[in-house]
Amino acid sequence: MATVAELLREAATLDSDSAQLDAQLLLCHVLGRDRTWLYTWPEVELDERACDRFRTLLAKRREGHPIAHLLEVREFWSLPLKVSTATLIPRPDTELMVECALALDLSASARVLDLGTGTGAIALALASERPNWLVSGVDRVDDAVALARANALALGLQRVDFWRSNWFDAVAAQFDLILSNPPYVAQDDPHLAEGDVRFEPRSALVAADQGYADLAHIIAGARGYLAPGGWLMLEHGAQQGERVREMLAANGYSRIETARDYGGRERVTCGQWPEEDRNG
Q1: In this structure, is the dihedral angle defined by the CA atoms of residues 55, 57, 60 and 62, taken in order, positive or negative?
Q2: What is the CATH number of the domain that holds 57?
Q3: Which of 265 and 199 is assigned the larger pLDDT?
Q4: How are beta strands 111-115 and 134-139 bridged, if at all?
Q5: Which of 7, 30, 243, 263 is the most exposed place for a label (fewest CB within 10 A)?
Q6: Rounded distance, CA 24 to CA 70, Å?
Q7: Long-range contacts: 100-103, Cβ < 8 Å, 24+?
Q8: Is the same domain home to 218 and 263?
């Protein structure tokens, strides 16, 4: 037996910038309570089962496991999304892509494709804001597709269509907007040995050619799946904006622009396929 306050004190040795918050979130997860309850009832004694479960999660956090994996949920665009080790944990910076997509002048029934959808975060955020858009998401990992479908069901956004495809391999339609947050980290990037990414699938992070291989593949491939006047939007690394813009221009896109994330770094670049489809 231990009290709420005693359990939270056990987290004092957590090697985390947010140790106190992490411990509170883990205990809330175990108890099915909110943080206000913890503040209100610090002297409540918890049974051994709850104490053991909390200590098990705390031990995993000490090993570096992402808090999102331990809570099995991460909020994105104010949507609670189930997460797993099958795919990346949605990042706040990726919300910039949702903002940029919503700012485009698309029709009320625009057709939208999210490549490498993972948890379904981008697709589901767009569907929540534009219920008349025809939103689809694809991923090459079966478990990721299942996770995205589960999130759609839990959020009541079942019009979003998710299926398995390695980029465009199983895509047949044309779209007014194609988005992707693809792998763009170089294989020798030292950050791969730090923080949450140690516990995320390397295949969702790393791309050949110093991180540019998948970006280049999508830029070239999307030309056959964009409707005339359609847009391609890509998240990329903070130092990759210039080369992504060059690749888009070399492949015939116009109106190329890059948006900066909340830290002022180049993060999302888009380009428009010509109204007169050059593949036609």
Answers
A1: negative
A2: 1.10.8.10
A3: 265
A4: parallel
A5: 263
A6: 13
A7: 100/233, 100/259, 100/268, 100/270, 101/126, 101/177, 101/179, 101/233, 102/126, 102/129, 102/130
A8: yes
DSSP readout, 80-91?
Answer: EEE--TTSPPPP
Q: What CATH number does residue 99 fall under?
A: 3.40.50.150
CB 59 within 8 A of CB 176: no
Same domain, 152 and 257: yes
Over residues 192-218, the pLDDT tens digits come to 878 778 888 888 889 999 999 999 999
- pLDDT, tens digit (0-9, with 9 covering 90-100), for 117-158: 999 999 999 999 999 999 999 999 999 999 999 999 999 998
Range of the domain at 94: 86-272
Distances in whole angstroms, Cα of residue 86 to Cα of each of 4, 13, 199: 33, 29, 10
Please state the rounded mean pLDDT for residues 67-89: 93
> Mean pLDDT, to the nearest integer, of 63-72?
89
State yes or no: pLDDT of 75 exceeds 70: yes
Please check whether residue 280 lies inside any domain of the structure.
Answer: no
pTM: 0.90
The rounded distance, in Å, linking the Cα atoms of 113 and 204 is 18
